[in-house]
Amino acid sequence: MSARPLSPRTLRIATGLAALGLALTACSTDETPSSTSSSSASAANPVDGGDLTFAIGNDPISLNPTGIGSGNDTFYVTRQLVDSLTWQDPADGSLKPWLATKWEANADQTEFTFTLRDGVTFSDGTPFTAASVKANFDDTVAAGAKSSAAANFIGYQGTTVVDDHTVKVAFTSPNAAFPQATSTVALGFVADSTLAIPFDERASGKGVVGTGPFVLDHYTKDTETVLTARDGYAWAPADRKGAGAPHLAKVTFQVAPEASVRTGSLTSGQVQAIGGVQPTDIPTLQDAGLPLVSRANPGIPFGLTFNESSDLGKDPAVREAIALAIDPTEIRDTALSDGFQVAVGPLASTTPGVADESSHLTTDPAKAASVLEADGWSKGADGIYAKGGTTLAPVLAWITNFSPNQTSVELIQSELKAVGIDATLWSGAVPDFQAKLKDGSFDLVWGNLSRADGDVLRTQYSTTATNFYRIDDPTLEKLLQEQLATGDEAKRTDLLAQAQERLVTQHHVIPVHELTTYLGLAKDAHGIELGADSRLDQLSTAWVD
Amino acid sequence: MSRYLVRRLLLAAGVLWAAYTVTFLVLYALPGDPVSIMYGGESSDVTPEQLDALRAQYGLDQPLPVQYVTQLGHALRGDLGTSVVNGQPVTTLIADALPPTAQIAGLALVLAIVVGGGLAVVATATRSRRLSGFLLSLPPLGVAVPSFWFGLTLVQWFSFQIPLFPALGNQGFASAVLPAVTLALPTSALIAQMLSRSLLHTLREPYVDTALAKGASRTRVHLRHALRNAALPALTVTGLVIGGLLSGAVVTETVFSRAGLGRLTATSVSAQDIPVVQGVVLVAATVYVLVNLLIDIVYPLLDPRIVTGSRRRVTSPPPPRPADAAPEPAADRVPVTAGGTR
After folding, report:
1. Which of B168, B215, B221 is nearest to B199 (CA)?
2. What region, left, alpha or beta, does residue A531 occupy, with left being phi > 0 and alpha being psi -120 to 50 degrees?
3. Measured at the alpha carbon of residue A336, what is the angle toward residues A332 and A340, in degrees to the nearest 5?
4. Based on the number of CB atoms within 10 Å of its own CB, is B80 exposed (0-12), middle (13-18) or buried (19 or more)?
């Protein structure tokens, strides 16, 4: 079509419409900001028989609990269908009995014996026994990379059915992180009839039978997953307050890809709960007086990690100078809100085994300059440090998997520039990013990783795992391997603490801020809680008025 | 006519093959592959050997020409393969996604023709220069407004502020209204633009004066004589906008949280789910080809001077040049007896 200049009238209409759109965002009721916590207020008595509609951002893709779907949103749904051997208490990260009443490990952490609870049945009526555990674990291992639990079974030797209520899982190498892994959705249990279906065909949820408090009614791709309460559910974790037979009669997980549409659907009462609340939408929900449930994600907080096979990354002085130049508090204040904590160390504050390393995390641009100069770097005419023909111009790789990331990395860039370090930002699609991590053509990378166990440090920084960072530090490597072979809780925590200290004092990592998961709730929705992994816990505590 | 049809069908097959091949090449030129995107995330401990095993299972380890020929062969037999992401047959995924998209696209097309056509007729018929000027300034605005923003504004007003329509999902007719309006906006603007220019041109033709002189009312001349002649270029554009409706569905279905072809496209492109993307492209190309074929067949019915077949001449009026595209009026169609409006 031919281009024609817009008439003044057209422009007036256009600006009028734009102003209207802007005004809408300001149209919210003026109430006192609500408080946030990791669970919604449970003041009144639970009401039985309610229906809950929960808006999530992505289609679950796979309703096979061990399969790979779209991450958190998938687990929000599948958590309702299956139970696990253990339950991790979000209060302190400790493991509590669930389908297993007790468990113990041998001295070198290669054998784990679980005693199972009596009277648990799948929703098709078949009993949950030691044989179910073996069949499920064997199935997961056979599925290999198609299972999101594959990483927990490295060195898997086999599962032995000792008797109906006792099962022994054996590994060829120590795996002290295994008991925690048994609390995750990916290690939840499905019935024999489900295992008989080929792995790939379980994604639709058809035939997926668990022991959980809800059963699948139907799943429509890109639209909704509808669950109904199961009769006779009586094996919720005893230590989880208020958990038992579900109060809700029906739960609908509705897919709504646009964050602002999820927020609007909640404020207009079309849904009772939303996930994936963006940091920018938090004030809107607070202003509307709606309760928010929040919890800092355990695991590795957002921050920078060096590629120590690069010329810049392998230079300890450069690493130290960059660490000193960055001001995490300024980044948090600019890119996020108070609901997101400044990182205390290589692990987030909600991770079991976290050590407070904040005394080693200092911001001192003047010292950064002197560290560089002591190492032989000098400023060129352009104000950027150089040494022996090498300019101090690191490549910082990042992706937009969290919307405030761009603000964070741009601020880091300007903080480094102020010291005389000329960082180049590189971003791309997920596959490009992965390719970059693999081929090592970067000096620094921005990112995080959620997992509710300190072993996450080994999976990220050990040279025997994915090894994207090529950290050549035998002391660190030894600590990371030792903690996996240590069953004694106190000893393991100490080893993890040493590893955390090593990571920051050697400036392998520069922790910046934690990630906080937010759920938004309607005023009549109660008892909706985030688990130890900061994902939606089972809705067996939830109800709507 | 039959020779003409055969030629058109062969051309259509060529277009489909080209669309299939270009999509294949583009998808393979992207970095990564579906297996590494799906299973080899940065945080996973999956070994390269496990990934290779999966690639072998999906045939992704084969050389590119082998993969292409194998897939094309299957596609010719109607087997579009299975999704790498959820293991469903592509034909099932498309069959499920097509009806909801057809619903909003159909509704949008009707709306676009009624609103766009109505606007063009009123703008060219009114004696008020101000009204005409105002109406004629709307189509450029309609094309310029981003669908994403327009859709979100509609949801804000007519779902969140005034609860008239549901904001989420495929919940019957009510939930199709706002998406259809969003999709119809750029389409109706195009139709209005094309038709109003074509009408303005046609109304200056001598036969219009003749008709008026013979006593036909302005309304009759406008609607019966001028509109029929001016409609042809607009019809050509309508053929083009069908494609626009399908691509518009990507944004619209995301904003309105609807399942459909658009969402299927968006999610499978980001997951590089090659078989699904290939299938969607084939379906879109087929729809596009069929609609344009249909329009070519309809032309001669509207204007007998457009001939198809053995006396192969102009088979379709040149598209977006409305002033030239309007065919010369057929003066003999002006009724001899002057009649009033009926």
Report:
1. B221
2. beta
3. 75
4. buried
| Burial of A198: CB neighbours in 10 Å, binned 0-12, 13-18, 19+ | exposed
Q: Cβ contact (<8 Å) for B36 and A459?
A: no
Q: What is the pLDDT of residue A271?
A: 96
Last residue of a domain, one of A162, A180, A204: A204
A437 touches chain B (CB under 8 A): yes
Please answer whether residues A331 and A411 qualify as being in contact, where contact means their C-beta atoms are separated by less than 8 angstroms: yes
**A332 with A431, same domain?**
yes
Please check whether residues A493 and A527 belong to one and the same domain.
no
DSSP summary character for residue A239: T
The pLDDT value given to residue B127: 85
Considering the domain architecture, whether residues A486 and A545 belong to the same structural domain is answered as no
> Is position A2 within any domain?
no
Note the helical H segments in B30-173.
34-39, 48-57, 64-76, 90-125, 129-144, 147-155
Cβ contact A385:A392 at 8 Å? yes
pLDDT digits (tens, 9 = 90+) for B122-148: 999 888 889 999 999 999 999 899 999
Closest Cα in chain A, distance from residue B217 (Å): 32
**8 A C-beta contact, residue A90 and residue A287:** no
Q: Which two tokens stand for residue A271?
A: 């849904």
Which value does ipTM take for this structure?
Answer: 0.81
* Pairing between β-strand A390-391 and β-strand A385-387 as defined by DSSP bridges: antiparallel
Least confident of A401-410, A428-437, B106-115: A428-437
Per-residue model confidence (pLDDT) at position B339: 34
| Whole-number pLDDT of residue B337 | 35
CATH class of B90-302: mainly alpha
- Residue A68 lies inside a defined structural domain of this protein: no
Residue A24 belongs to some domain of the structure: no
Do B137 and A14 count as a contact with CB atoms less than 8 A apart?
Answer: no
Q: In this complex, is the C-beta atom of A154 within 8 Å of any C-beta atom belonging to chain B?
A: yes
Instruction: Judge if A369 and A456 occupy the same domain.
Output: yes
* Tokens found for residue B47: 């070994």
- C-alpha distances in angstroms, B153 versus A202, A269, B257, B260, B313? 39, 18, 15, 21, 48
Question: For residue A56, what are the β-bridge partners?
Answer: A255
Q: How far is B286 from B272, CA to CA, in rounded Å?
A: 22
- CA–CA gap between residue A416 and residue A411 (Å, rounded): 9
- Say yes or no for a CB contact (<8 Å) between A203 and B272: no
Are A230 and A306 within one domain?
no
Per DSSP, which regions of A451-504 are E strands? none
Best interface-test mutation with A: which of B26, B33, B46, B197 has the largest number of A CBs within 10 A?
B46
Q: How far is CA A248 from CA A83, A255, A273, A521, A528, in A?
A: 18, 20, 13, 15, 11
pLDDT digits (tens, 9 = 90+) for A204-263: 999 999 999 999 999 999 999 999 999 999 999 999 999 999 999 999 999 999 999 999
Token digits of residue A310: 């690069």
CATH number at residue A152: 3.90.76.10
**How many domains would you assign to chain A?**
3
For residue A229, give its domain range.
35-57+213-296+516-545
CB B124 within 8 A of CB B200: yes
Residues A108 and A42 in one domain: no
Contact yes or no for B239/A238 (Cβ under 8 A) = no
A91 lies within 8 A of chain B by CB: no
Q: Do A343 and A481 reside in the same domain of the chain?
A: yes
